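Supplementary Methods, section 5.1.

A reviewer requested that the exact input to the structure prediction be made available. We therefore reproduce it here, unchanged from the version used in the analyses.
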Amino acid sequence: MRDQRIRDPIHDLIKFSAKRGFDEILWKLIQTPEFQRLRRIAQLGFAPIVYPGATHTRFSHSLGAMEMARKMLAILKHNKVVEESEKSENATVCAALLHDVGHGPLSHVFEEVSESCEIQIHHEDWTKRIIKDSNIGTILKDFDSEIHQDVLSFFEVEHGSDLYSTIVSSQFDADRLDFMLRDRYFTGVKFGLIDPAWIFDCLQIKRLSIEANSEAEKYRFVVSQKGFSAIENYFYAYTELYSKVYFHKTSRAAQIMMKNILSEVAKDPAILSTENPLRSYFEATPTPLLETYCRLDDSVIWSTIRFLAENGKEEVSTLSKRLLNRNLFKCFELPKAPKDESDPILAQAFENKLNDKKIKFHKDRIQRKGYKAYETDYLKDILVSLEGEKYPKALHKLSNWVAEMSRGTPLRYYFEETNDREIAKNIYEEIS
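The structure derived from this sequence is encoded token-by-token as follows.
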């Protein structure tokens, strides 16, 4: 293999060197049909409805996660406290590259529809099946059967079991670092500040007891005190991305509409042509073939929506036309203070009034995303080393804001017509 490079807006040049033997394997994996499918799966699903620039794909994100894993592995080498293992490093980079290879079309919407029709195979399961049984598995096995098993193990062991698995899956992993930088870039949002170069420079590796008074120890990434504000800002940006981008009320409306359409298709897949991979997928419930799943991408879904707009039953046809033309359901979010929860008694009274007036609605409770505290396994927390302190402390113990960031989950109601939403607003004002 000659040297290869990919120009990337986040990492500049992502390089594959002929001098690094495993880079040739990574390059081969990228060329497989299973990995190339990710070019046809949008990273942010329906976000372009709100942010027109957010058309990047899981393909570019996966490359970015691989590059971010390389940068995090460089910290291991810089600290020189862990015995270097070329196999472990190769498997880590490979796992980061392949972490999204099992994703279905339209992000998590398709998975929700699959679950509703008893296909209990999540994208993580598809990832493992693809790594085991596709061209990707063949390439890895031919190179080294141990590497193949090591890569699979990242998707089978508990997250954060060691430093290498922390790089692939944790609260501060290569995946999250890349998608936060990438999604901010392509959506154009300006809130929050992510400074990975400074955070990386402030990352240390320390040997810590598994629990109090225990002689058993593990190596863990620890943020120095100088990196405290940077890691705090990182989680602020993470929370705001979920609130303002991933769970934006308009893109959620499109998701609800798409879910309703696909649910109807799942009930009667024969409405589609025999050549449509979506029909083959739903007809194979509850255990679709891997080959069938790998034929699915965003283009299949959108071409199906175009077909249903002209050929579907009246309700499905209308929904499909509205989705294509961005005539979306209208949202009413129950008013509340930012950190408070919606009053469940008031919400139930509101829903009862809507039902009495026969106003159709779709309920959507948003789960705020923030920092996850591990009270029983503190080594999974983001740990900060304070000057003069012997033991590092969990981030949420040092920052009240971080500790409270996941409070205040919004409760939204979507209505199919603007007039229904206005009536709903009036009902809420009367009872509140």
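The first strand starts at residue 4 and ends at 8. These observations are discussed further in the main text.
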